[in-house]
Amino acid sequence: MAGTKDAPTAAVVVDPDGVVSGWSEGGRLLLGWTAKDTVGRPVADLLVDPPPAGFPEGYGAGPDPTGFIALRHQDGSTVDAVLAAQPLFGPDGRALGHVVTVQRWGRRPVIADRAFEQSPFALGVYDPELRFLWINASSGRVIAHSEEQVLGKEYRELFPEFDRELFPERDDKPYTDQLSEVARTGKPARLITVFRPLGSNYANAWATSIWPVRDAEGRVRAVANWGFDMSAEYWARQRLLILNKASGGIGRTLDVIGTAQELARTPVPGFADLVSVDLFDEVLRGEEPPSASAFTRGEPIPLSRAAQHSARGDTDRALGPMIPVSHAPGSVAARCMATGSSTVELAAEPGQGGEWAFGPGLAADPAHWPPGNPLIHGSIAADGLTGRITVPLRARGALLGVVTFSRSDRPEAFTADDLILAEELTAKAAVAIDNARRYSRERTTALTLQRSLLPQGLPNQEAVEVASRYLPGGAGAEVGGDWFDVIPLSGARVALVVGDVVGHGLHASASMGRLRTAVRTLADVDLPPDELLTHLDDLVLHLASDLQPADHFQPAGESGATCLYTVYDPVSRRFTLASAGHPLPLIISADGTRTPVPAQPGPPLGIGGLPFEATELGLPEGSLLALYTDGLVRSRKRDVDERIAELQRILNHSATSLEILCDTVMDAMLSESRTDDAALLLARTHALDPHHVADWDVGPDPAQVPGARKFAVDQVDAWGLEEAAFVTELVVSELVTNAIRYGEPPIRLRLIRDTSLICEVSDASSTAPHLRRARAFDEGGRGLLLVAQLTQGWGTRHTTSGKTIWCAQALP
């Protein structure tokens, strides 16, 4: 009996008229019909489709017929079966009908049926109209229905939720459409289906294979599927994808607010529905965050909402001015910041949604919850949330703020694995935000140092009209070492200087300050441009050797710096220049024509051993000089020569003010995405009125001194400077006397009326005078001391033919 029950075989006797005359117990077990139900009825009543060839007489009998057939079960379902029909004869050889044996389709051992039935994977068979033919026990548990409840019923009718996708953005077909397509095309399919069954608090991911089931003639008679729940693996992979997205999406810029916004956008909508990032104001300013003691005073903790992003898009903030937020003492955020631990809040315990909630509940969550988590209470439901994770934003031992990840549109509760993901995202963003904060602090420091070392105001002088601009690199670039200077020189001359230190950051700013100081010091000695650059080159070499650290780490310094040093003389209108690897100036005359500069830049500073050459040319009055650094003309898209030509065209535009022209140049030449700083110095030359210059040749005879004094006094009186006559007479007497006594002819006296009254005495000797303290009985040695006391300044400059001693008096 056991064997009959495990594999029922129906034995049916059919008379010659096709009427059932005998019915076995196996027929009842197989089809549910009893002998009382079937005996006396046409056998055709048990058939779903026309009988195969060889069925009992009247239906095409044949020798030893065997075939597949669909029979009608007592409950209305269809049973696919294989049959064998044999003729039945009496003792006289008369035909009494047929004996038909019927078994379920497929002859296999009983243990094989048990294996399919007990498989841990969900198995099911459906007819081409997606009516249930058979499911195993695992499939019944998944859909929460028994086999008896679903047999013969349509898939779409029982489970309409499988006609929709949980994630429409994936552009996947609903699962029932996939089943129908396999039945229609006969092509198998493999897929991963993500869906949330009705009443479930979780979306599940299933790996499924669907294939057609064909009969002996190759017709698709059914569709079978096989699947297993791979939700844990699927969601773990989704978390890895979010982390991978975070690796490429968080920390792309060295900007605190930009990084906070990247953190807020990355996990939405794949992980959370709303993310907010609150930071301390000190962090936003690039300063050190407050110490931990600030969180233990029982006072509200003030922060600023640096970023917020929602899956709905209705609370995104482009965050111009920060929105202040305050976390009360004892609040979850305040506790997280004080303890440094994360907190998970859930509106209700997950996994309690009934038999459909086959996602992980608290007890079934495979990950281990840290102590104190999760907090189960309904208070967050008042905010429209199903769950919230609060994570302190910490980096390198410092607390920068707090981040909250909230779910509102999805019913899935956060799991312990979700907490790990939230902490990983926050940790990555915290390092990036702290890097941006540190960069902002260093950039601010370097920029402050840079601006403090640049001229705060251009000096008052009459030789040129000047205007300047300096712009650091864009927000994502470090401060460089570009600089410029305007240095008044003796004889009403002026030096125009521009330079660039290789590298960026504090080292470049400090190096720029050293170079600018060195140039000013050498300019006070009144060296010609080529000699000044030679001394500056030697100085850079010495500084580089002094700064070489023991670990051979070479910081960014003066080595490789460039410098352009020029001198303009308004008396002679001569312009002298020398370049150490720096772009040559642009010179545009008053009529708009460009004056070519017949010179070649020398080597950059710090190479040593190579000469620098000075070039001198005459300039018409009103010429425009443009000195700039390469940051102004450098471009990734265009050649430097093209950029210089563009600069030339802009400078040709008439402008009533050099200040306006500076702004025009900077706006046209520089973009917001620039990576290097840029300096521009514009100068329009003036010529000194010839009536403001007076010369007198002095013979090498002490008797010439009275004549020189009279010449000076008469000239000062002619200029209307009678108040300066006494001091002028005295200093001329001292300087001319020294030139006659210690110098060599020719000797020449020159008076210049500029912003000050300048007295110059030149001779052919290269011996430079110097101050000394005269003793009580010395007859000389007091002249230069007297000149130094009576004038605003004095000095010596060497020329190719000797030297010039000069002094300047302030005019009333």
Task: Give a quick account of the main beta sheet: strands, pairing sense, barrel closure.
Answer: 7 strands, mixed
The radius of gyration computed from the alpha-carbon positions, rounded to a whole number of angstroms, is: 49 Å
Secondary-structure-derived class: alpha+beta
Helix content: 25-40%
The averaged pLDDT comes out at 81
Query: Proportion of β residues?
Result: 25-35%
Low-confidence stretches at least 5 residues in length (pLDDT < 50)? 1-5, 57-64, 352-364, 552-558, 774-780
As laid out across the biggest beta sheet, the strand order is 13-12-11-17-16-14-15
- DSSP strand tally: 31
Q: Given the C-alpha coordinates, what overall shape results?
A: rod-shaped
Number of helices: 20
The first-to-last residue Cα distance is: 135 Å
Task: Please explain how this structure is put together.
This protein is an alpha+beta fold and about 800 residues long. Helices cover about 30% and strands about 25% of the residues. It has 20 helices and 31 strands. It has a seven-stranded mixed sheet with strand order 13-12-11-17-16-14-15, sandwiched between helices. Strand 21 (about 560-570) and strand 22 form a beta hairpin. Helix 18 packs antiparallel against helix 19. The longest helix has about 40 residues, at about 415-455. It starts with a helix and ends with a strand. Residues about 1-5, about 55-65, about 350-365, about 550-560 and about 775-780 have low confidence and may be disordered.
